[in-house]
Structures are given as structure tokens and as C-alpha cells.
Amino acid sequence: MTSARHPHLSHPRYRPDIDGLRALAIIPVVIFHAFPTLAPGGFTGVDIFFVISGYLISTIIFENHRKGRFSFVEFYVRRIKRIFPTLLIVLLFCNALGWFVLMADEYKQLGKHIAAGAGFVSNFALWSESGYFDNAAETKPLLHLWSLGIEEQFYIVWPLLVWLLWKSWLRTFSLIVGVIVLSFYFNMRWVVDDDGMAFYMPFSRFWELSCGSLLAWISVNKTLGNNVVVHKSAAAFVSWMGNGWQNTKHKLSDIFSVTGLFTLVCGFVLVDRDVPYPGAWAMIPVLGAVLIILAGADAIFNRAILSSRVFVWFGLISYPLYLWHWPLLSFSRIIEEDTPNVMIRLACVALSIMFAYVTYIFVEKPIRRDIRSVAKATVLALLMAVVGWLGYVVYENDGYESRIDDPVGVAKIFAHPQPNLIQSDCDKYFPDLRSSHFERGECTVVGDSKPTVAFFGDSHAQHYAAVMPDYLAGHAVLKIIGTSCLPFASGNYKEEGACLQKYNDLIAFLKRDHGINTIILSAYWSKAIPGKVGVKGVNWRHAGEFGPDEVGNFIKNGEKFLNAALLGGRKVILMKDVPDLDFDIHECFAIRPFTITDRRNVGGKCSMSYSAYARRIAPYDEVLDSLLKRFPSVQVFDPVPLFCKNGGCIAAENGLPLYFNGDHLNSIGARKVMDAFSDEVLAPLFH
């Protein structure tokens, strides 16, 4: 694997235009994160980075394999010395700043992300968090490390695959094309089935880096030695792509260059966060980057613009700028409890540029000069392990709640909004459910006897389920909670893994006699009716416009479910939903250790207008009420009057929060509802 005569890796000839292309990638990313409306597709700059990385890394690998001097050790030493120094500083900075400004639950999550970032698996960690209770993307200071994880995973797999197949020139080409085709297939399939997986998983992103690898293969093989035996058509292809346009068709190079620029600009403007991404949309930045690199350093746009001092300067600091800008913007968003004002965002961008330059000059360049130092790389790797461990310690210690001066325990309520239940798998008493599609934890029994009470719903049932056993007078309860799925919706069940199967399993269960005589239903009804599921990798339902099809499906599915639930004279109770908030519940409490500006609703009413809420919820209530009119035996409990009085709807009471996010109750809010529910419904039922 390492030649004795040539122990050191050679690098390709420096192309300043590629540093300029890095600038063209990082600047829109920063603008998008700071001012999204100015560059709605600025996030596609990350895809440009993927192509550049694939091209440069593959060029190094291919050229050194051809010269017989490729070394895995030196390859990874260089990667460590290139990537680790700035990342270490940013991770330590985030950990330290998080100690002073984050709440316990936020700091705990940051600790997890530090550990994941140090292990280059942030993409997997972020994908696993997609769901109802996930913090908003803007409040994750290390969210951007997902792309670094994908690149590092490519660096681990790609050199080994090339080494295994390098002896055959055509096999290497086939490998590149095969990875592009297979990865693009996963990309197109997952963006429909699970866009979170398509966005974060390496298998659906490797095609972008492999497009850069194809460019490297063309570049390295454009002049073939006599000792290389290939098919004539393959040789002709390489000659046309490598020598033909570069040596004799300069105009074509200029066309590629300008077309590539136009394509990238189209991506920055036409793509936005609402399109299914990456999917086919990712072809825009990938194609643009491929054309610009393929055009060569002497093409008109590459030479005149990308090779200019300003673009090259931003390109040189693009990596530290990418690492610095998002944590600063994210921390400012967290501290302000809302989108920071323009001046704060401009200050964050300016600071990130300054930090990036200082890091590049005083950290990156000195460490990278000694390119053969295995010892330095070993030390950096050990330091990264220590930093990852520090993050894990923060996570394991629940974000160190004792940091925060919180005599009434508000921070602890936010960190632990619901108690843990002692429960067992439902197949203990209902063996026929073993073959169902319910995942572990979705179908459980609370109590020590066979249940006669069942509680079905989504996460808006879960916040009651955590406290409901205290109100059931010793009755065991069967709890089936399908987040975003149950008990029924408008029929768009393609997301959230087997929702349709779970719905059908529940219908089949209800049609059998299991001794269940009381069924309680609760759900996020205003989201169940439109039935729109899965947006930008966040797999939850969301409200929106809905038409006759959605209403019709909701009524049809609801009738089917309620008919099955009422079989055998069962008692069915439907709990309407609590108000969903139009503000951040955290704004109401002055418990954050540090603030930038005084813009929170501290000491205020911590409430919203009832009339505004009523207008927002009215269309959904009308649909639900029209269904319930067909089933007069279904008892309806409405918790809204508990929260909405005198023209307002409260989110806190007696100085304590009732919610832990915009629409989920904590245990205090859940008990407030269950106290009334018990008096009105359960007490007459069980006594």
C-alpha cells in the first residue's frame, strides 16, 4: 500500500478557482442561515462542497495510486490535520458557551451533539431526533456538522474501495458510476418515503461526492500510458472529456464555466426549504459545480472571478467559516428566544468571519505545515476523543441542572416534562398483538392486571398517558400511542413508518373481544385532518390548507374506527385538543443564565388571544364535530375552557409552565386537564 521509494503522497496542482468555488459555496450558506429570504436556496452550497471534496480527495487517491505511492496512514494523517484542529476549537467553544447560556435540556442535547460531532456521526444523531419532541433546527448549535459526518464517512469507505479495484482501470470507472447510480437511487426513493433519511444518510449523498470523483478520474486518466489497457471506446471517452475540450475547445470551457455559474445561481434562487430535498433538486448545485470544475482554471469565469483575491480569500477560510458561523447564529437565536434582530445577525456573521480568519492563520496553517507528522495527528485524534467524552459526560449528567438559579424548579420542569411510567409490553395480556406493526414502547400496559380500559392516540395522548394511571381508580390501562398516526387521520399514511398498518392493526384489534369496555381517544386533531406528513426531514403532521379529499378521508377513517370501537357496547370518550400556542413557552420565564437583549415576555400574562386561536382552530373543529354528530353515543370532553377564559388562553399558572413546547403539555398541564376529566368523566364511570 505504500511504496518504499515514494513514501509521501503528492497533491494535485493548485487551482485557485477551486478555492473561489469554495467561496461561492460558503457565502450563500452563511447568507441563508443569517438572512434566509435573501438566498432561499443558499443551503445548496453544501452540495457544492460535496462535489469539491469528492474531486480533490479522489484526485489525491488516483494520482498516488498511479504512481505507486498511496499510503493509508499518510492519507488519514493529512485528513486529521486538515479537519480536526478547527473542529476541536469549535466543539470546545460550544461546550463552554453552552455551560453559561443553555437550559439543562438544551445543554444535554448539545452534549450529545458534541459527542456525535467528535465521532463524525452527527448525521445519524440528527436523523434519529426527527420527530414531535425534537428541538427546532435553529436551536441546535452543531446542526451543521451533519455534512462533515457524511464527508468523513466517505473518506473512510472510498479509499478502501479504490484500493481494492485500482489495478483495473475500467473497474475503477465502473465503481464510480455504480456508486453514483445506486446512491442517487436511494436519494430519489427516500426523499419520497422518508426525506429525513434522504437528507442525512450517507447512502443518499455519496452520489454527490462521487460526481467529484468522476471528474478526478477524467482528469487523472486524460493522458493514458501505454501500459494501461482499456477498451477503445473508454479511451476515446477519456480523451474527449480530458484532452479534447481542454486543449482545443476553449470556447466550450467558457460555456461550461458560465453555464455552471448560471446553474448554481438558479439553485440559490429557485430551491427553497419547502421542496423535497435533496431529491432531483440536488442535481442543480451538483451539475453547476461539475461544470465549473470541468471547465478548468483558464475558463473565463474561473479565471476572472473565482481566481480573484477576494474569492480565493473566502475560499481559504471556507472550512473554519462553515464551522463558526452556525454556532454563533444558533446561540444568538437560543439566547434571544426568537430570531435575533438584524444587527445581532450581522454581528454574528462578522464575528464568524473574524474567528475563521484567526483560526486559519494561527491554527490551521501552522499545524498543516508539517504534513508528515504522525505524532501530531495522533495527539489531535486523542484530543478529539477527549472532547467527545466531555460531551457525553454533559449528556449523561442531564445538562447539569444545578448550574441554573431556579428556586421554583421551572428549568427542571422543562428538562423533565413528563414522569416515567412503569409499564409492560401489551402482548403480555394481548398475545394477538405480537404480530402487529406497533413498535416497542408504542403498545404497553400500565397496571398489574388485564386492562379493561384502553387509551389510543398520538403524542397528544401521550402527555395524558403519563399521569392517567393516577386517575383510573386502580384500573389497568392498555395504551397504544402511534405518534402522528393514531387513532385516525385523513388517510395520508405514507410517512411515519407503517402508519396504515398500525391503523389497520388497531381496527382489527377492536373487532375482537378482549374484555376492553372503555376506550379513550386523544389526538392532535387539527393536524390529523389535513393529513400532511413529513416536511424537510421532520416527520410530523402539520396544519395547512385542506380540501374535500382530506375532509372526506378523515370522516371515512373516523367512521370506520368509531364503528369498530363501539362494538359490544363499549364506552368511547373522545378528548378534544388543548390550545396550541402561537408563542414560545420559554419566553415567559426569566431562567436563562444569559441574555443579549430584553425581549422576552417575562412577568407577562404568558397567554395568547382566544379569538385568534378560535379563528385558527374553527375549520378543524367543524370537521371533527361533523364526524361526532354521527356518533351521539361518543362522549366528548373539551379541555379548552380550562385554558381559555376572559379573552385569553394561558400557558402558565401559579408561576409554572403548563406546556413544554408549543402544543404538548407537561405533567402539570396534564394533571390540570385530568383533574377535570376525572370529575366529569371518570368518576361517574368507575364509581
Automatic annotation (TrEMBL):
Residues 17-360 form the Acyltransferase domain. The chain crosses the membrane at residues 21-39, 45-62, 83-102, 172-192, 252-271, 277-297, 304-322, 342-363, 375-395. Residues 438-678 form the SGNH domain. One of its GO terms (cellular component) is membrane. Keywords: Acyltransferase, Membrane, Transferase, Transmembrane, Transmembrane helix. GO terms for biological process: lipopolysaccharide biosynthetic process. Pfam families: Acyl_transf_3 (PF01757), SGNH (PF19040). InterPro entries: Acyl_transf_3_dom, Acyltransferase_3, SGNH. GO terms for molecular function: acyltransferase activity, transferring groups other than amino-acyl groups. PANTHER family: ACETYLTRANSFERASE, ACYL_TRANSF_3 DOMAIN-CONTAINING PROTEIN. This is Acyltransferase.
